[in-house]
Write a structure and sequence with these properties.
Helix content of chain A: under 10%
Radius of gyration of chain A: 13 Å
Number of helices of chain A: 0
Order of helices and strands of chain B: EEEEEEEEEEEE
Structural class of chain B: mainly beta
Number of strands of chain B: 12
Largest sheet of chain A: 7 strands, mixed
Distance between the termini of chain B: 41 Å
Order of helices and strands of chain A: EEEEEEEEEEE
Strand content of chain B: over 45%
Distance between the termini of chain A: 36 Å
Oligomer: heterodimer
Helix content of chain B: under 10%
Strand content of chain A: over 45%
Chain lengths: ~110, ~120
């Protein structure tokens, strides 16, 4: 398996634009996590899916953020409209009850100017 | 709610020496998993070591070992014979037992470790 795949690796966008981050979890994993990493706040859990169902979205900062998991092999995190304070590295991770550990993608570095 | 605390924002160690990174956590769960992840400058998150709470024996992986004190809710990481490639951010993390509960992973704030030649 190629591991958790995120795209794009880097994204630079202007304030007000819509941004969509994509994630392909490891095949067979039934949990998927979106994290945001910044210097000030560290690694924050934004939302967590289990069997494609959002279980906990309490970390989503505001209504501008939304996440979907239409099937077991794909998830998106969308920011609309984007703001400069959204600049961060966004990680997707997946896990299964068998493995227990979370496997991370390479992250997407988002810069909103 | 579970919390993970790392009280050392930065640490340094001489190459070939031993260093210990601290982690404490808070939970009411009886079984759970604890992890140490390493994040080098490449930003890739890499699992270093894992401990299941019901196992009393401390986990070891080559130069990496943990001191797991369940009653004290402490989970420290010892790196022996430090190497330059160990320079990274180290995150302590907690997860409930996925066989009995939803298994989101909660991370501590991290410790930045520098290995000095």
């Amino acid at each position: 398996d190629a591991g958790v795949i995120q795209s794009p690796r880097h994204e630079v966008t202007e304030m007000g634009q819509e941004v969509t981050l994509r994630c392909k979890p490891i095949s067979g994993h039934n949990s998927l996590f979106w994290y945001r990493q910044t210097m000030m706040r560290g690694l924050e859990l934004l939302i967590y899916f289990n069997n494609n169902v959002p279980i906990d979205d309490s970390g989503m900062p505001e209504d501008r953020f939304s996440a979907k998991m239409p099937n077991a092999s794909f998830s998106t995190l969308k920011i609309q409209p984007s703001e400069p304070r959204d600049s961060a590295v966004y990680f997707c991770a997946s896990s299964s009850a068998l493995n227990t550990e979370a496997f991370f993608g390479q992250g997407t570095r988002l810069t909103v100017v | 709610a579970q919390t993970v605390t790392q009280s050392q924002p930065e640490m340094s160690v001489q190459e070939a020496e031993t260093v210990t990174l601290s982690c404490t956590y808070d939970t009411s769960e009886s079984n759970y998993y604890l992890f140490w992840y390493k994040q080098p400058p490449s930003r890739q998150m890499i699992l270093v070591i894992r401990q299941e709470a019901y196992k009393q024996q401390n986990a070891t992986e080559n130069r990496f070992s943990v001191n797991f004190q369940k009653a004290a809710k402490s989970f420290s990481l010892k790196i022996s014979d430090s190497q330059l490639g160990d320079t990274a951010m180290y995150f302590c993390a907690f997860m409930k037992d996925p066989k009995t509960s939803y298994d989101k992973v909660i991370f501590g704030p991290g410790t930045s470790l520098s290995v000095i030649p």
